[in-house]
Amino acid sequence: MKDIINIQKKIIPEAFATFEKRYDILRNIYILQPIGRRALANRLSIGERIVRGEMEFLKEQGLIDVNPAGMMITHEGLVLMDQLKEIIYHLRGISGLQEQLKKKLQINSVYIVPGNIENDKYVLRDLSKTTSRILEGSLVENSIVGVTGGSTMAEVANEMTQQSKKRGIVVVPARGGLGKKVESQANTIAAVMANKLNGSYQLLHASDTMSQEAIESILQDPEIKKITDLIKQVNILVFGIGRSDKMAERRELSQEIIELLQSRRAVAEAFGHYFNRDGEIVHEMKTVGINLEDFCKVPTTIGVAGGPKKAEAIVAISKIKKDLILVTDEGATREILEKY
């Protein structure tokens, strides 16, 4: 198919220009819906008159709906986008990047969304939508899903499709609370995700910022132990790949520990363990929830991170979890391929 696309692109390049433009319009409507004509024109840096013409065409084809709130993609439009993605990704070199990154990191699967999250805030929504659809495609009856906290995971939960059928799915927080924002706590995200999946959830009423002694003590509590035992049965885990410095800040670590991590060149954190770029453990702490041993045993693990600043963390985590499903962006991908 790639050879055919290359031949067609040489013979009828103008057709592919229109093809890419309409794909971009559909993609941005999907990411930002509902969105008005003027906002879409500004987003794509094209004339409002051009958007109006394309909007009418896409509406006639049944690919978008238009109402007072703005434009929204239809089910047919979403199906078509999925069908066109392989062609678009080939035209823009994304498919090649996915194969290069997969080979470089030597991991199970790589999904790359266009753009750089550090330069374009809307890339987060694309990253989150892609992650939510991978997760939804991984679910089976009675799945136990673990999810960590953080703004990216909160966005993933929000972007999930509302399910009507009950499938016995249980969602649990994969680790104790971190940070001060309620909306980005693992407990909150687990509840939102369970609601979207028409499933149930369990909460873990414990903080990962407690002292090591306090964590040891609370883990003996029967109610906490009941939840942590369930967490160890997780068969699908969705987590944000964290930089060591940012996670140390969220865990409210002492300046002494922060300096220790810096001296040992820690670049990533996962479930209480801090790693250097080679995936070697340079520091570990007791946590509430999934530990590193549990993490390595989870059958389906989806790690999410975007932007060049996450490149080292992605490289490190890939060293310890070879069956990882990675969802990232062009920004992080190019940084890894060029520098690591």
TrEMBL record:
Record-annotated CggR N-terminal DNA binding domain positions: 19-88
Keyword Ion transport: no
InterPro entries xref list: CggR_N (IPR048715), NagB/RpiA_transferase-like (IPR037171), SorC_transcr_regulators (IPR051054), Sugar-bd_dom_put (IPR007324), WH-like_DNA-bd_sf (IPR036388), WH_DNA-bd_sf (IPR036390)
Residue stretches making up the Sugar-binding domain: 93-338
Top-rank taxon: Bacteria
Keywords: DNA-binding, Transcription, Transcription regulation
UniProt key word Transcription regulation: yes
Protein family according to the UniProt entry: Belongs to the SorC transcriptional regulatory family.
Protein name: Central glycolytic genes regulator
UniProt source species: Alkaliphilus hydrothermalis
Lineage, highest ranks first: Bacteria, Bacillati, Bacillota, Clostridia, Peptostreptococcales
